[in-house]
Structures are given as C-alpha cells and as structure tokens.
C-alpha cells in the first residue's frame, strides 16, 4: 500500500486541478492520496468524483494555517466534517487574511516592480486560496523571476522587505477546532527550519495535550537527523508518525509518493475521523 497524505491543487497553491492530482497519484502508483489544500475544503467534491475514474482512494483534508507565539505553522486536518462551524469559521477568517496580506505584498512590490493585483488575479481561478505562490506566478509572467522557487529564494522570502505575514489562529485553538469538527490533527513538517523558526518540543507537547494525533516526520524539508529526532518524539509522546510529499504540481520539486505513510497509521486516522475515506 502506497499512501501519500499531503498534496495541493489549484484550489490553493498547487498547479493542477483536484481531479488531475488524483490522476497523477494513479500514475505515481499510489493507492491512497490525501488532498490537503491550504485553509479550504473547496477541492473535495472534484477529488471525490475522480476516485472511481482513477482507482486511487481519497483522504479528504485541509492544511490549516496557525500561529505559535508568532511563528507560522501548518496543521493537517484529516477527515473532518467540512460543515462544522468550529473549523470552517477559523479557516474562512484565514482566507480573508490571506487576501489582504497578498494585496499588501503586491503593494510593496509595486514600488519597485511593474506588478498590480490584476496580474495576481490573472494567474488564479476565482475562489482560490491566495498565497505567495500566486504572486510568484505573476512575477514569472511579468518576467521578473524565472520560476516560483526563484521568487521564494528572493523577493518573496520571509526575510524580504516585501514580505508581509498573515493573521492565523493559535495552534492550540486549531487543534481543538479540528477535533471538534471530527478531524484528525497532524502537525505538518514540524522541523522545516528552511521556512523560518521552528517550534520547541514543549509546544508540540502542549498540542498533544490539546488533541494532536501525529507528526509529519517524513517530509522533504526534514533531513535524516530531524526525521530521527521527530520519530523519537512521536514515539515518546505516543502519537502517529506520517510521511508525505507535500506535492504542489509543477510549483515545487516535490514528487508524489516521495515519502509515504504506513497503512496502520492510516487505519488509526480513519478510525478517529468523522468523514469516510472515499474508495473506488
Ligand atoms: P504562503 O502560504 O502564502 O505564506 O506561501 C507559502 C507556501 O508556498 C507554502 O505552502 C509552500 O509550500 C508554497 N510553495 C509553493 N511553491 C514553492 C516554492 N517553489 N518554494 C517555496 N515554497 C513554495
Ligand atoms: Zn502550499
Ligand atoms: Fe505547509
Ligand atoms: Fe503543504
């Protein structure tokens, strides 16, 4: 069983529509894939419709933005009730904050580069959860940078003078909201220090107390030492350890199935989640 529990589509900042992500998962030889777009469940229906076509089983999820002491972190929610207001209202507020923050970044860039919000709107579909990747795509179209990664290495990096953070709820509140909505919360790439500061173990312990079910241990942003440390931490805290690609289509080098989750771990997630896994 090949199981990849973290992917993005055009509903957020991936480059392929949800149905295409499932088709790509079939081509990559996956048996199960989770669609986990940022702060939205808008891709779930299209992805579910692609299950009988592709034969790939679908775990419906969301990558929820959060803050811990001002540090931006991501919490994966699996198999929640998408209508439950506890989580739905939190992610709706974050989507609003992302819109405002996107415009602020573009205003800062516009001082030095010929970019307007219309350029960003032109590279995304209506209703997309906006992020820096869309601003990067607009910069590519304008010929300012060659690709997304170049934009993230320079103009859109966290240390850039054009960078603006966005409001997100506290991580403990997000974990509790995910559980209230019947979801299973897993801390996404908790050791990804390439993206900025990482949280100390104490914070992870607090999140486990609040209901955190697991840590995403096997992820491209973790080196061997981090994987060993986080795997040991998961064991010590008695929570699940997952592995995933964090696929963004052509927007990032991450390839489907480059990290996998064990079938027993998926079994635990499924038994704790309120929404079923969609099987062909
Ligand atoms: P934001 O959520 O707006 O702060 O933007 C960060 C997001 O951009 C993360 O989810 C990354 O996975 C995503 N991203 C997409 N392409 C890239 C890339 N080439 N380099 C770094 N991050 C990227
Ligand atoms: Zn992303
Ligand atoms: Fe993430
Ligand atoms: Fe992600």
Task: Describe it.
This protein has 280 residues and is α/β, with parallel strands linked by helices. The chain has a domain at 3-91 and 167-272: Metal-dependent hydrolases (TIM Barrel, Alpha-Beta Barrel), CATH 3.20.20.140. The protein is built from eleven helices and seven strands. The chain has helices at 18-27, 44-49, 51-54, 85-110, 117-122, 132-141, 148-153, 171-180, 201-210, 224-237, 263-272; strands spanning 3-4, 32-35, 57-68, 71-78, 184-187, 214-218, 240-243. It has a seven-stranded mixed β-sheet, sandwiched between helices. Helix 1 links the parallel strand 1 and strand 2. The longest helix has 26 residues, at 85-110. The two termini are 15 Å apart. The relative contact order is 0.19. The mean pLDDT is 97. Residues 6, 8, 63, 246 line the site of one fe (iii) ion (FE).
